[in-house]
């Protein structure tokens, strides 16, 4: 029985902290979790696939999606647009699936206004040096983009206070386990489950 709607889980954190890596690991261990694929105007990185990592759009296409109200939230990050297609999220939540959004902080705050019942998780690095190492180690950005991402990271870390949970990504396995524990606990929240039992009691069942 799955009378409840799914949970909307929002994961943010500075560039290079390991959001993509942790999300990929989570999807393997949480069968009820679906990942929302974002639209972006950023060019694909080597190995990234259309419809899997992102829906890659031109600025014109993206602006049309905004005008048509097709995005649940959107933001500009380091010179590119990023946004969450609305329909997929709404349909999955309605079907009782937990939906994971991996988005930056401005977008997360838009989601929080629309879905205050969402679960907001902020992923942090064990240290700033380790964050730098991870961004450099990934090797997907040029020097200027790395500097920009590290600057954005400082501003993003200051937004931690707006989130419900802070998870340290020391190892992928541990970070994943912590997020799984959060999701399990959120499923057991009284305000989520009580309406169903109140209804059963009222019906005398
Ligand atoms: N607001 C918003 N942010 C997004 C969305 N998709 C991805 N992002 C965020 O945009 C930022 C840049 O993403 P990306 O270019 O893939 O770089 P990376 O996360 O540093 O690997 C990250 O903080 C993502 O979480 C989205 O749909 N909406
Ligand atoms: N717990 C971890 N320990 C060590 N390296 C990590 C960890 N998590 C991610 N990484 C590495 O850090 C780099 C950035 O990870 P990525 O998932 O692309 O970050 P984000 O999506 O937050 O920008 C990648 O090279 C990834 O393999």
Automatic annotation (TrEMBL):
Keywords, comma-separated and alphabetical: ATP-binding, Cytoplasm, Kinase, Nucleotide-binding, Transferase
Catalytic activity: GMP + ATP = GDP + ADP
Cellular component per GO, a single term: cytosol
InterPro entries per the UniProt record, alphabetical: GK/Ca_channel_bsu, Guanylate_kin-like_dom, Guanylate_kinase, Guanylate_kinase_CS, P-loop_NTPase
E.C. code: 2.7.4.8
Record's protein name: Guanylate kinase
Organism: Calditerricola satsumensis
Summary of the function given for this chain in its UniProt record: Essential for recycling GMP and indirectly, cGMP.
Chain ranges of the Guanylate kinase-like domain: 6-184
Places the protein is found: Cytoplasm
Family annotation (PANTHER family): GUANYLATE KINASE, GUANYLATE KINASE-RELATED
CDD domains registered for this protein in UniProt: GMPK
SMART domains: GuKc
The family this protein is said to belong to: Belongs to the guanylate kinase family.
Xref: Pfam families: Guanylate_kin
Molecular-function GO terms, alphabetical: ATP binding; GMP kinase activity
Sites where the protein binds ATP: 13-20
